[in-house]
Write a structure and sequence with these properties.
Elements lengths: L2 H25 L2 H22 L5 H19 L3 H13 L12 H9 L6 H12 L4 H7 L4 H17 L12 H20 L11 H17 L4 H14 L25 H17 L5 H14 L8 H14 L3 H15 L1 H9 L2 H4 L3 H13 L3 H14 L3 H15 L2
Length: about 400
């Protein structure tokens, strides 16, 4: 890759969201903004290798994209109707409340992640308009056909226009709940990369975890005082730090207790720990992501699994259960309880979740492990069979199969 190609790749990561957001503010139309931005980057690919990279690449791209957008509007046979339609996105929006954060990218984030849109549409729009991923890239990431993904994005844009979803930062009263919706989108993207569900995909999708972290860093820069944004970033960093140790050379999942901790990314762990300490020092009651980050901080602080402070982990899960009393949180807490109070106590907790989690592979995998530790091999084998049937990740399936087969030969 030559210097111009490297510069274009770097600038695409740094400037795509800014260019799309600036065009959306000016023209009020997501289609125009996206297409003009793509045309501007295509022009850069064509011209920069011979003309050289401009001193201010972002300004060059924004200026070029603005011209492309204006050219498109002029080409429209019904220009006046098109311009009127385009202004609908933002002309009816009330003025920004005093003190609101004024950043075009933040406006775009809240537009893409508006609660009126289906979650799958929010994810697709966020990755396309903020991340700059192409439709084929997003379709591959979520194992859908390109035509399906294209239709999903088109319908979402249409709903934004039809419902006149405003292109603005929410009011101070609405901001916390709306931010949580944005973080949910980013965490979903991260989790799909962290534990990819497709049978024919890599078990860990680094491009998705990296993109989720990059976009969360962007939101962190725009909302530096939001504790849950910091918490989610810390959580992602501490999980991502273990990525290279999570899958063996043979393609099998390596569980936390068996991972080579020397292979963990020390820089990511240090950054994650720093964010967790900063939130603790803030003296503000932590939210869901901050507690989850703190749990991961305890795990990544231990040089050996035997050094893990399980009492602290359980105490943190106790906080999380009060804040987020879902069966999956209770299941994760039971795994920590097994280390503190033994597998029999944990199994009683897990069995109480059977009705809610019977279709969840991790429920059966947890039961299988607890039953194995209690010497109940026949029941353990049956639980492994259910977990294998439900698991979608290739590395996880390989791990569960090996553990089950070890029972068979015992």
């Amino acid at each position: 890759m030559n210097d111009a190609e490297q510069a274009i790749t770097r600038v695409h990561h740094e400037e795509w969201a800014r260019v799309v957001a600036a065009l959306t503010r000016r023209f009020g139309d997501l289609d125009i903004a996206e297409e003009a931005a793509a045309e501007a980057f295509a022009a850069a690919v064509e011209r920069w290798p011979s003309d050289g990279v401009p001193p201010n690449p972002g300004a060059w791209l924004t200026t070029t994209a603005n011209r492309k957008a204006i050219d498109r509007i002029r080409r429209e046979t019904k220009r006046d109707d098109k311009q009127k339609e385009a202004r609908m996105v933002h002309d009816d929006a009330p003025p920004e409340p005093l003190g609101a954060i004024d950043d075009d990218r933040l406006r775009l984030i809240f537009t893409c992640c508006h609660p009126a849109l289906a979650m799958r549409a929010r994810v697709a729009l966020t990755l396309r308009l903020l991340g700059g991923l192409t439709v084929p890239e997003i379709a591959r990431a979520f194992l859908v056909r390109e035509t399906t993904l294209e239709q999903r994005i088109t319908r979402a844009k249409g709903k934004i226009k039809a419902a006149r979803i405003p292109y603005r930062v929410p009011t101070a009263e609405d901001l916390p709940s709306r931010v949580s919706g944005v973080l949910a989108v980013l965490f979903l993207v991260f989790n799909e990369g962290y534990l990819a569900t497709g049978p024919d995909t890599d078990p860990v999708r680094h491009e998705l975890t990296a993109e989720a972290i990059r976009l969360t860093r962007l939101i962190r820069a725009l909302l530096p005082d939001d504790g849950e944004v910091a918490g989610l970033l810390a959580l992602m960093l501490l999980i991502e730090a273990r990525r290279t140790a999570r899958v063996s050379a043979s393609g099998e999942l390596v569980t936390l207790d068996e991972q080579d901790r020397g292979a963990w990314d020390k820089a990511l762990i240090a950054e994650g720990h720093r964010l967790v300490r900063e939130r603790l020092a803030a003296g503000v009651a932590p939210g869901r992501y901050q507690i989850m980050a703190a749990i991961n901080a305890v795990h990544t602080s231990a040089r050996d699994v035997r050094d893990t402070d399980w009492s602290q982990v359980v105490a943190l899960y106790d906080q999380l259960v009060r804040l987020d009393p879902t069966p999956i949180v209770a299941l994760n807490r039971a795994i920590a309880v097994a280390e503190l109070d033994g597998p029999e106590v944990a199994l009683a907790i897990v069995d109480s979740l059977a009705e809610a989690l019977d279709g969840y592979h991790a429920f059966h995998a947890t039961r299988a492990d607890l039953l194995r530790r209690l010497g109940r091999s026949r029941q353990s084998r049956a639980a492994y069979d259910k977990a294998i049937d439900l698991a979608g990740n290739t590395a996880e399936t390989a791990y569960l199969t090996r553990r089950r087969d070890q029972l068979s030969s015992a």
